[in-house]
Fold:
Amino acid sequence: MADPKENVQMEKIVSLCKRRGFIFQSSEIYGGINGFWDYGPLGAELKRNVKELWWHAMTRQREDVVGLEATIIMSPAIWKASGHVDTFSDPMIDCKTCKGRFRADQTDEIPCPQKPSKCVNDCHGEKTAPRAFNLMFQTFVGPVQDDSAIAYLRPETAQAIFAQFKNVLETSRQKVPFGIAQTGKAFRNEVTPRNYTFRSREFEQMELEFFIKPDEAVEAIHGSVASVPTTGHPGEPQSNWGWQAWHQYWVEERVRFYEGIGLNRTTLAFHRQTPEELAHYARACVDILFKFPFSKRDEQGELKGEELEGIAARSDFDLSQHARFSGKPMGVFDDELRAAWGKLPKEKSDDLWRRYYDNRKRYLEKSGVAPEAAAKQATEDANGLAKGQYVPHVIEPSAGVDRLILALIANAYSETSKTDEKGKTETNVVLRFHPRVAPIKVGVLPLLKNKPELVAKALAVRDLLRPWMNVYYDDGGSIGRRYARQDEAGTPFCVTIDFDSLGEKPELLNTVTIRHRDDGRQERVAISDLVNWLLPQIR
Ligand code: GAP
Structure:
């Protein structure tokens, strides 16, 4: 369990989120619904900023990634091909005494319904044997509710990318290596939603499928596959990169993204999945973890962290599955490979042919294809490689929006205390969001609300900034209280319009004070320079 002190921290965060309108319980007036959360005015802005920054970094800033926006309900055949219908399940157990229902792999952490303050192991009730519980939400498409009408709410956004791979390839003028990015809702009927929004039943994902050449193709074209250091950023993408370099690249790119929105490396941890943890088709998977207040601690007392994002090297499994199940080819033709193959020494081409054959045969057999049929298909696939054809492999950075929002709030949360002359101490919350993600970028405050000239100028400043950023106009209460309100919302800058702005000191006419949230520093800026002053700080 997490340290009690840190649970207090979590309680403070949950209470702030409700009080300031970041996160509300879904359907709260009806008692709520477990595992579902709504985002209030500040939360909605924060979430939108995060998704837009991700979209910007992953697509618009790059030549080699394009976007997709697919439906939530898709053909159920997709979930059969992906393996979700057969294997996307958690082991579930019931307690015969307290009637609680739990994940068999998490019994030490689940509150017992009879003794909510205790964990289920204290209940000592007899448990049923674990049984698989499929996490997909089912629904029916059309008016007849029988088995033929069953459909699923997508449990991940990724599969639509694979299913639309050919359409995107043909319409986007991209060539492997390239990626397809998508953000959107995903649904999982988690047995035990927990840790606030961390494990929800409805959540959002930001996923990239980055398609690459199989290593055998890279080797045929370039003579060898580049070897890169196993730590650190490998630099700008190179045409001789194999899956390892691309995987390392995406792990580091994603860490840069987190650093760029205020989560520095010390707040993160990494978990490289062991061979036992990896899916049979996966070559590697690195999870990026954030050290949440509810994370467990290691032997040294360090928070271990919980998963924000997984970056998986998934081989050619996904496209191969959709090719087999749909009967539609998912391979690409690579003229560079075809030309290079013709010039290879026989020994080299035989070696590459054999390695590709072995990989394809292993995949087919693991997917249940009989050995003879697998050998025949793998032979065709390896002969295809020699003619410039292959099924692209994929690197998949897959992140959760809601977990990131919670991480950003936990990371930003801080308290400041001030003691006045009478010895009275006041504690205020400051959310130290990076200006890029902050829900409100700037508070606009007239010094006094009963001076029409101050109010008119403040409203003009608000209207000047509005087309560029989210602005909050506030004229209620003392200036100190208004600063404190903005600190609690995480607003990085406050602009105050005072008598100098009106020309009381003529040299300060049409200037304003900018107050910095984190250190209270103030500086004077001309109104005409405000947009240009603010924009580089918030983008
Ligand atoms: N396509 C791969 C995939 O979906 P995943 O590890 O199951 O992989 C990716 O999910 C990310 O989605 C996780 O790292 C996490 O951030 C988020 N996620 C998964 N389940 C979630 C849940 N129940 N509640 C909130 N976020 C979740």
Summary: The chain has two domains: 1-74+157-331+391-424, 440-538. Residues 1-74+157-331+391-424 form a domain with the BirA Bifunctional Protein; domain 2 fold (CATH 3.30.930.10). Residues 115-120 have pLDDT under 50 and may be disordered. Residues 156, 158, 188, 190, 199-200, 203, 205, 207, 307-310, 398-400, 402-403 surround glycyl-adenosine-5'-phosphate (CB under 6 Å).
